[in-house]
Write a structure and sequence with these properties.
Blueprint (H helix, E strand, L loop, with lengths): L2 E8 L6 H7 L9 E9 L5 H7 L4 E5 L5 H14 L4 E4 L11 H9 L5 E5 L10 H18 L11 E4 H6 L8 H11 L4 E5 L15 H19 L1 H28 L7 H55 L1 H6 L8 E3 L1
Parallel strand pairs: 1-2, 1-4, 2-3, 3-8, 5-7
Antiparallel strand pairs: 4-6, 5-6
Length: 340
């Protein structure tokens, strides 16, 4: 039996959540069961209560606001615990069209993709301003090159993930999971594809960032951090080599003047060049050390993936013992789980 869990990260979405839930699909070809999961990220309104009253199957509530990345992590962990075979992430403000979830899920059901990203058609999307379109396209180009994928809308939060892929993805950023997840998945050689989807007009301004410059800065830091995490030798090694090349230039300059008998007045070139060479060598050695740490990280991630698989099997075994109770409570939402 193929189970799909649609997760919705929420922050004060009591007004928009009912409409979003009503638009979600009840049946999808190739999927036997569809369940909904709301992650209440420290809302001050009645988001959890609205979710419960509208029949949401699973609710996870953070005591305080942790941010979108933490909400996404909590949702994925809970979906895996509940035995999801496919996880779809969507927004609570109704930006994405619920019917298009079938498009996202189809390649995963067919075994053609590990992750499917909803492409909002940024280039021609009438709901985006011209500056936002250019910014989104630039960001997607950078992420596409760094992740070695062919994704045209890297920051789209509308995406489907197979359970196997979800068990191997570990979000570490505190800002937004979208780019971190793509760089990880691309470097782990997962099969990622895009499918065109529709969007609705924005119901409200984004709560992810307060200004465009701040969004650019935080996204840039996230991309740089994620790329460095999985390619430390390229980053530190490249910087070290660059410093070495720059340091060699003043040394060659000093050697030239020394050979023609004018070295006394250019000793500063030797000092600067030597300092840069030493700094370059240290940076390169740091790259080797970081690469060894990265190898240990891969082993740790493999262990965590195995633990997630084991937890899923234990949950399945426990669920099989309580089938009678599950049948009686099939139409009732689970108790709200408080994430510490």
């Amino acid at each position: 039996m193929t189970k799909l869990i649609i997760q919705i990260p929420c922050l004060n979405e009591a007004d928009h959540l009912p409409e979003t839930l009503a638009a979600l699909p009840r049946r999808i070809p190739g999927v036997d069961a569809i369940e909904y999961l709301v992650i209440d990220d420290g809302s001050s309104d009645d988001t959890s209560g609205v979710a419960r009253r509208h029949g949401v199957h699973h609710i996870v509530r953070h005591r305080g606001n942790r941010g979108l990345a933490a909400a996404f992590r909590s949702g994925v962990d809970e979906a895996l615990r509940q035995g999801a075979d496919i996880i779809v992430n969507t927004d609570a403000d109704g930006q994405y069209v619920g019917e298009d979830i079938a498009k996202l899920v189809a390649p995963v059901v067919a075994g053609e993709a590990d992750i499917v990203i909803g492409d909002r058609g940024v280039r021609d999307n009438e709901h985006f301003g011209s500056f936002k379109r250019k910014l989104q396209r630039l960001g997607s180009t950078v992420v596409r090159k760094l992740s070695r994928t062919n994704i045209t809308d890297a920051v789209s939060g509308f995406r489907a993930i197979s359970a196997d892929a979800a068990q191997r993805i570990f979000i570490t950023t505190e800002f937004s999971y979208t780019t971190d997840m793509l760089i990880q998945a691309g470097r782990k050689r997962m099969h990622i594809i895009s499918v065109p989807i529709r969007t609705n007009p924005a119901a409200r301004p984004s709560r992810l960032f307060k200004s465009i410059p701040r969004f650019i800065a935080q996204t840039g830091v996230t991309i740089a951090r994620a790329y460095t995490t999985y390619n430390p030798l390229h980053v530190f090694g490249g910087v070290g080599i660059a410093l070495g090349v720059v340091g060699a230039l003043p040394i060659f300059r000093f050697m030239w003047f020394f050979m023609i008998g004018q070295g006394d007045g250019h000793i500063q070139s030797l000092v600067i060049g030597g300092s840069l060479l030493v700094l370059g060598a240290i940076t390169f050695l740091l790259g080797i050390l970081a690469d060894l740490i990265s190898a240990n990280r891969k082993l740790a991630e493999a262990t965590l993936a195995k633990l997630r698989q084991l937890e899923a099997r234990l949950e399945d075994a426990e669920a099989s013992k309580t089938d009678a109770n599950v049948d009686q409570q099939a139409d009732e939402p689970d108790q709200v789980k408080i994430a510490r």
